[in-house]
Amino acid sequence: MSAESGQARPAPTLEMVAALAGVSRATVSRVVNGSPSVDPSMADSVEKAVRALNYVPNRAARTLASRRTYTVTLLVPESTSKVFADPFFASVVEGIARYLNTTEYMLNMVTSSESNPEKTRRYLLGGNVDGVLVVSHHTGDHSWERLNGQLPVVFAGRPLVDAGQSYFVEVDNEEGAAAATARLTGAGRRSIATIAGPQDMLAGVDRLAGWRAEVRRAGLDDALVETGDFTVASGAAAMRRLLDRGRNIDAVFAANDQMASGAYSVLQERGLRIPEDVAVVGFDDDYYATSLSPALTTIHHPITALGGKMAEVLVDLIEGRPTERVNRLPTSLVVRDSA
Amino acid sequence: MSAESGQARPAPTLEMVAALAGVSRATVSRVVNGSPSVDPSMADSVEKAVRALNYVPNRAARTLASRRTYTVTLLVPESTSKVFADPFFASVVEGIARYLNTTEYMLNMVTSSESNPEKTRRYLLGGNVDGVLVVSHHTGDHSWERLNGQLPVVFAGRPLVDAGQSYFVEVDNEEGAAAATARLTGAGRRSIATIAGPQDMLAGVDRLAGWRAEVRRAGLDDALVETGDFTVASGAAAMRRLLDRGRNIDAVFAANDQMASGAYSVLQERGLRIPEDVAVVGFDDDYYATSLSPALTTIHHPITALGGKMAEVLVDLIEGRPTERVNRLPTSLVVRDSA
DNA sequence: TTGTAGGCGTTATCAT
DNA sequence: ATGATAACGCCTACAA
């Protein structure tokens, strides 16, 4: 066959279905949209016609008439460059896409060029979208909450200061960190240090708070703190500083698995056994957790679930269903060999 | 009616702009769409009105009337689960998104559930999209080329057997492999082995062919071949088999960086120095390349560019511009310390 | 329960 | 160059 570069036969319309089924367009519309009040026999012949013609409603027409787009936008504030390579982002998107697949909503992505945020803003407010999902890495960046009241928006992570109006879903970092630490206290460890994350990031702050809460609850010293920036190297450096304090440390809670990885190397280079001499618990349950030796006991960070929940909340918002404004997802302890 | 929760003032319409500018809707439409034949002064007042009202064309209406959606779909045949976590996929998408950002096309993703490909098919052919981009991992899976002739489609990677009709863009694996090998022959290596990729994947086949071509060109033995499956472990195993042949090998071209990493460990465990005793060149220039020690000399695989080119070709196709059916992207040698 | 008819915001075809 | 006036395909009161 000769490949025409042009389009082919036009898609069947509601009207054609109506003709074939011998009913009015209104009836077809009702059947297609699952209206409750339609005579079963009619519905039947309509459905037959739909299949015969392989009819699919035209989205644009539907949107124009109903003023609903059935589209939600994934807004990526960062410069397009690196986002997609980030496994965190990838997992969130996966969760979103998976949930949306169970609905009739479509996902479309727009990376708001910081060069021209107004363009993005106008697009969103131009009636082209039913709702917005914001996944940023500047944790707490809710600058797009201005859209609230105009258009439903759901954020990943809570804002730096919760003004009580934006919808968001976050992982319960504090509880997770406390659980990680409890694994240590529960095993009789008495000198528990932590390699904290950056204190200008919510995850860093919350995880440190969780560690501190549990350590105090157990009546232990809460001064064994060194901070890193979530990288392997910073974890190693922090572990080194901790050890150089000359105190006898028998356990470490690292605020993420990468820093735990850094701690491993220092611990091992100093001849300390894991977990015999020093037990280690991480956070995130990522690639590093399983590839380390001994395998890292850590806190599972439900990133995909986070995305799924975001999408769920947004759809609820769009359809006017009552929804919690803030959702905090629980974490779980994954026990392996390091603690 | 009662007030809808959250929603606000309706977006300004073309009609409102026309009223404010004191012209007809047709004229406004012309101005907005940059029609050549409009009186400058008129255009001016229209633009003023557009800004004043912060007018944005309604996408659905525009689509309905023009029968153009300005939307392209990224089709992901795999099961949703793992795709996003794959760095290759992530980079391709990044390239696509970046290019599309320079156009007026929107990107929307649909992961075709293998459970129900017909649904996807109907959506695509239902006039909801102007074109399709297919990124699959089953290299050569062009099962969606059936859409050709109905809707423009561009694939990542060439089909197993090129029937001469589907548009695709691929990286020149063969040339890249030859360049990698030439780095070795050029340095006077005489006994050059290769750790080939799976021979049921195009990348595996092409890279082996490139190695073979260069090795023969240099008049060397082309029997030093062992195959892996692109994983680190398989690379180590292949290296071991190569060494166990008892031949004196002074260089190795690994079909990807991960297998090169595996080769490194075996080489080092047998006390062979890199590159003094055995020079190594990889392919992909990924994370492994820089984290290995000594840093790996490798072939840069332009994944992001691949995505960008795909989008470019698709848009050209949609707009009826002449375009090459097959695009082969050049690779480049990245010289580091292993060869 | 089913059909009629008006409209959703643009583009496109004609005249003018 | 500009302006009426149909479509575009569907939804939704409202009427029957």
From TrEMBL, chains A, B:
Name used for this protein in its record: LacI family transcriptional regulator
UniProt cross-references to InterPro entries, sorted A to Z: HTH_LacI, LacI/GalR-like_sensor, Lambda_DNA-bd_dom_sf, Peripla_BP_I
UniProt cross-references to PANTHER family, sorted A to Z: HTH-TYPE TRANSCRIPTIONAL REGULATOR GALS (PTHR30146:SF109), LACI-RELATED TRANSCRIPTIONAL REPRESSOR (PTHR30146)
CDD domains to which the protein is assigned, alphabetical: HTH_LacI, PBP1_LacI_sugar_binding-like
Boundaries of every HTH lacI-type domain copy: 12-66
Organism: Arthrobacter jinronghuae
KW Repressor (keyword) present: no
SUPFAM superfamilies: lambda repressor-like DNA-binding domains, Periplasmic binding protein-like I
UniProt entry keywords in alphabetical sequence: DNA-binding, Transcription, Transcription regulation
PROSITE patterns: HTH_LACI_2
Coiled-coil region(s): none
